[in-house]
């Protein structure tokens, strides 16, 4: 997951309480969440939903509350439902959602799982870790098994881009320019707006040299 900031002003269409997923809401959420699902971090997902962070359960105030609307792919929305009401809020600037849960990417394109580890022991962190584990590793239905494997492969592809740059940075024949170029590309992969940025950032933090060099760049 990644932190982001939500502007206080709500899209105009919410005022009428007729539709919570109007065009202006979608466009605002796409900008706020970098056009990514806030849970799995898939960029420009094929099927996107306006998701209620806390299930509204027919409460109109919650249903049309601007602060309760998030951008999620349909798969994550389907997995989360009301079961995961108490999770870390990526719009809360007092919580570093990225550092709360260690993300370890798959080491092959067809790995059966990714590893997710809660760093803190509070209920919201534990619940968020359980949700992410279900999103990336669930195989309780054929559909979830196939879509989970596809998601892990997409994470691996992004990790592989990082791996290429790490190799270039540490190459014994790397010039100063080579190292600088590799670092700039790693910074691009680390951006909150980049797909699966939590996995990339944890790979960087877990590297003794790169973690010290780039840790301060992780907003």
Taken in chain order, the helices and strands follow as: HEHEHHEEHHHHH
> For the CA atoms, what is the radius of gyration?
18 Å
Mean pLDDT over the residues: 96
Q: Can you tell me the overall shape?
A: globular
CA(first)-CA(last) distance: 12 Å
- Mind summarizing the main beta sheet? 2 strands, antiparallel
Strand content: 5-15%
Structural class: mainly alpha
Number of helices in the DSSP assignment: 9
Uncertain segments are none
- Binned, the helix content reads 40-55%
Strand order of the largest sheet: 1-2
Strand segment count: 4
Number of domains: 1
Protein name: HNH endonuclease
GO molecular function: endonuclease activity
Keywords: Endonuclease, Hydrolase, Nuclease
InterPro entries: HNH
Protein architecture, described:
- By secondary structure, this protein is mainly α.
- It has one domain (12-217).
- It contains 9 helices and 4 strands; from the N terminus they run H-E-H-E-H-H-E-E-H-H-H-H-H.
- The strands form 2 sheets. Strands 1-2 form a two-stranded antiparallel sheet. A two-stranded antiparallel ribbon has the order 3-4.
- Helix 6 runs antiparallel to helix 7 (176-190).
- It is globular, with a radius of gyration of 18 Å.
- The model has no long low-confidence stretch (mean pLDDT 96).
- InterPro entries: HNH.
- GO terms for molecular function: endonuclease activity.
- Keywords: Endonuclease, Hydrolase, Nuclease.
- It comes from Pseudomonas shirazensis.
- Residues 37-81 form the HNH domain.
Keywords:
219 residues, mainly alpha, two-stranded antiparallel sheet, 9 helices, 4 strands, globular
């Amino acid at each position: 997951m990644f932190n982001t900031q939500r502007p206080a002003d709500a899209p105009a269409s919410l005022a009428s309480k007729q539709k919570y997923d109007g065009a202006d809401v979608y466009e605002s959420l796409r900008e706020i969440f970098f056009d990514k699902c806030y849970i799995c971090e898939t960029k420009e997902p094929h099927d996107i939903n306006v998701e209620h962070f806390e299930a509204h359960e027919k409460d109109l105030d919650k249903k049309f509350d601007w602060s309760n609307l998030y951008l999620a792919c349909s798969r994550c929305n389907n997995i989360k439902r009301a079961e995961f009401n108490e999770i870390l809020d990526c719009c809360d600037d007092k919580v570093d959602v990225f550092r709360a849960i260690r993300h370890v990417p798959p080491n092959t394109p067809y790995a059966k799982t990714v590893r997710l580890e809660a760093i803190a022991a509070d209920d919201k962190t534990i619940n968020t870790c359980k949700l992410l584990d279900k999103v990336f590793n669930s195989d309780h239905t054929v559909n979830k098994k196939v879509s989970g494997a596809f998601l892990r492969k997409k994470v691996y592809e992004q990790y592989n881009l990082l791996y290429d740059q790490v190799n270039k940075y540490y190459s014994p024949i790397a010039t100063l320019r080579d190292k600088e170029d590799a670092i700039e590309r790693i910074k691009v992969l680390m951006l909150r707006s980049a797909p699966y940025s939590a996995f990339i950032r944890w790979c960087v933090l877990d590297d003794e040299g790169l973690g010290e060099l780039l840790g301060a760049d992780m907003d």
